[in-house]
Amino acid sequence: MLALRTLLVIPGVEAGTMAEAQRSAADAVVLDLAVPALTTERTEARATVTKVMAALGSHQRPVIVRVSSASTDELEADIAAAVQPALSAIVLAGTETPQDARDADVLLRKYELRHEMTPGHVRLIPEIDSAAGLQALPIILGSVDRHEAVALNPLRMHRDLDLARGLREAHDHTMAFVAIAVRAAELPWLLGAFDGDRGFIEATRAHEFGAIGAAVASEASVRGVNSLFTPDAAEVAAAEAILREWDRLQADGEVVGVVLVGDEANPRTELVDRRSMRAARLAVGRADAVRAIEHLR
C-alpha cells in the first residue's frame, strides 16, 4: 500500500521543477503526461519523464505517472516511457470502462517484463471523471487485480455532467458513490484534480467522505494537506486492537467478538467480525505506509 496523502503534480515537460520535487514533503510525485497542454509536445514530455524517473526513484519517493486515456492512441507510448523500476503506479486518465483498465494492465505487464520487473509491480489508479466512469466503477475495480486506489477528478466530472458553475451539491453524490465502491473493493480513494481548478472541491469535504489524500499543485499546499489526511492515532490504535482480537478469535476457532478501544477512562465497545477486520486492515495498512514515508524523511 502506498502513502497517498499528497500527490505533487508536475506536468511532464517541466524538468526544471524536478529538484523541488526531490525535496518535496509530498508522499508521492505525479509526472503528468495526460495534461492537455502536452498534446503537441508528447515526444519531449515522454523523454523528460524517462530521464527524471530514476532521479526521483533514487530518493525512495514513490513516483506516479498520469498517462493518457485508453480511448486515445497515446496510451502505449506513455506507458512505454513511464515503466521502469522507479515507477510505483500510473493514473489512467479518463477511465470509463472495465476494458480501459484491462488495456492498461496488459500494457503494463508487457513493459514490466521488458524491464525484467515482477508483473504487478506497477499499480493502477483509475481516474474517474465522467458519469460513464462513475457508473462503471464497481465493475472496473473487479476487472484487474492491479488497483491501488481510485482518483476522482471533480472538475472534469462537473464539466461532464454539464452543471452550473456554482452547483457543487452533485459532488456529494459522486464522492459518496466512489466511497461506497472502493470500500466494497477494499481500496482507498483520493481527490485527483490533476488539472484545472484544484480548489473546486475543498480537500476537507473529500476527507469527510473518506478520501485518503489529494493532488496538489504546489509545495505550499503539501504540509497542510498531509496534516489533514494523516491517519488519526486513536483510530489507528483502535484498528490495531480489532486486528489483535481477530487473530485471537481465529486461533480459538471463533468469528465474532468484541474489544474495548479508545480512552481508558471512557472506552467504547467495538464489534470484531470479518467486516470490521477488513476495515481495520485497511486503516492499519494506510497508517503503516504513512509511517514508512515519514521515516524516509
What does this protein look like?
This protein has an eight-stranded parallel beta sheet with strand order 7-6-5-4-3-2-1-8. Strands 9-10 form a two-stranded antiparallel ribbon. It has two domains: 6-229, Phosphoenolpyruvate-binding domains (TIM Barrel); 233-296, no CATH class. Helix 3 packs parallel to helix 4, helix 4 (98-114) packs across helix 5 (131-141) and helix 10 (233-251) packs across helix 11 (274-296). It has helices at residues 18-23, 42-57, 75-82, 98-114, 131-141, 154-160, 169-184, 203-208, 222-229, 233-251, 274-296, and strands spanning 6-11, 28-32, 63-67, 87-92, 123-128, 150-152, 189-191, 214-216, 257-261, 268-272. Helices cover 46% and strands 16% of the residues. With 297 residues, the chain is of the alpha/beta class. The model has no long low-confidence stretch (mean pLDDT 89). It is globular. The chain has eleven helices and ten strands.
Tally the beta strands: 10
Assembly status: single chain
Weakly predicted, low-confidence segments: none
Summarize model confidence as the mean pLDDT.
Answer: 89
CATH class of the largest domain: Alpha Beta
Q: What structural class should be given to the helix and strand makeup? A: alpha/beta
The CATH topology of the largest domain is what?
Answer: TIM Barrel
Largest sheet: 8 strands, parallel
Describe how the helices and strands are arranged:
Blueprint: E1 6-11, H1 18-23, E2 28-32, H2 42-57, E3 63-67, H3 75-82, E4 87-92, H4 98-114, E5 123-128, H5 131-141, E6 150-152, H6 154-160, H7 169-184, E7 189-191, H8 203-208, E8 214-216, H9 222-229, H10 233-251, E9 257-261, E10 268-272, H11 274-296
